[in-house]
Specification:
Layout: H1 24-35, E1 42-46, H2 53-66, E2 69-75, H3 83-102, H4 105-110, H5 112-128, H6 149-166, E3 171-177, H7 191-203, E4 208-214, H8 217-225, H9 229-232, E5 233-237, H10 245-256, E6 260-261, H11 263-273, H12 277-290, E7 295-296, H13 298-321, H14 326-336, E8 341-343, H15 344-351, H16 355-367, E9 371-375, E10 378-381, H17 386-392
Parallel strand pairs: 1-4, 1-5, 2-3, 3-4, 6-7
Antiparallel strand pairs: 8-10, 9-10
Helix pairs in contact: 1-2, 3-5, 3-6, 5-6, 6-7, 10-12, 11-12, 12-13, 14-15, 14-17
Magnesium ion (MG) is lined by residues 14, 53-54, 177.
Amino acid sequence: MQNWLPSPYRPGNGIDPPYLGDREEQIEAVRAFLKDAHNPRNVLITGLRGVGKTVLLNHLQGEAEGLGWLVIDREFSEPDVEPLAFANALLTDVNRALRRLSLSTRLKDRAANLLQAAIDVVGALTVSYGEFKVSVDTRRRRPGPHRRLDDDLKEAFTHIGELCRKSEYRGIVLRYDEFHVIREHPGSPTLSALLSATSAVQQHGLPLMLMLCGLPPVVDNLARSKSYSERMFTTLVLGNLRPPEDRAALVDPATRLGRRFADEVVDAVMIDSGGYPFFIQVYGDALWNGSHGETIQIADLRRLRPRILATLDAGFFRARYVRASPNERKLMRNIASFGESATIEQLQEASGRRNNEIQPTISALIAKGLVYRPERARIGFTAPMFGAFLQRTPD
Ligand SMILES: Nc1ncnc2c1ncn2[C@@H]1O[C@H](COP(=O)(O)OP(=O)(O)O)[C@@H](O)[C@H]1O
Ligand SMILES: [Mg+2]
């Protein structure tokens, strides 16, 4: 029996897949932006959990760095939504950028004064936002008590942008993942400050670019904080992999290591996964590890599928299910009785409740990312095979 190399598949969170399927369009588009630093553009990546947002973001980061941009990256989390924490995060990032720039020999030679001036200004800003963790060598003190975050950011971004221009960097990219957690706080601007500062420095042609990434609510959060945000961003909406790239994502990594899948296996995995990138990795990994032949056969899939589903049930599906309240679970079960989606009319019949009674539950489920509206008056599960999971799982 031949010993195959370890599985090339990468089920997980933000882990680079062995074959990046169906993302060439998006990469092409952003590459064009990155080549034109005089006309800075912003990118917003959105889509449901597990469609490959972080993976794409990482690739774009690589493209940006390859083209000479200075990339500052961050993954936001719930505590960062507090205005002070948000301000701190951004000013910390400006400082990180400054530190990287201060290593630039070109800047040291040609603009040492400018660099020190920027360090003084930005350092003073950061200190003024309290409990700041990075030590900054600043000669200036807090610049007055009633500064606003948008003014401060604008000042900091302007310095960074100008320094980038004089350095060997083409510009700076702020690469922010999980950005859907950031919402505007009434009374203390956070998001709107970032957007207005960015827009102001971009209007002066300074090479600063935002690359934001998050679950679908990110779109609304941005729009609500600044009405012009939709004009500021090119939005890349990611979905499941489309044929033939869905098949390639499964087949290609195996081929490269000398194995193949019988066509029926590929067909069946495409049906189960719906082209959902995370599931393609899960199936590929289980099939690779659980079989021995050079060709992975349909008998292998039949044998392994119950175990794959049991693992998904206990982890992936269960984790989603427990996020729903008892009332929300009932509605999801109503949907599941019709398959992977149901019309509002069907749900009214199945639940015996009126439209205005079920709408709040639907809104709550949408906010939790468990269901979405694939078309008018229809509700579907955001995860493939979630309906089938509910049907095989008692309460
Ligand atoms: N374009 C792709 N082709 C194949 N697999 C992918 C692709 N994008 C992501 N994946 C895989 O899908 C899973 C989820 O990716 P991730 O970027 O974490 O999703 P998200 O950030 O949208 O939740 C990972 O296992 C990753 O390797
Ligand atoms: Mg992610």
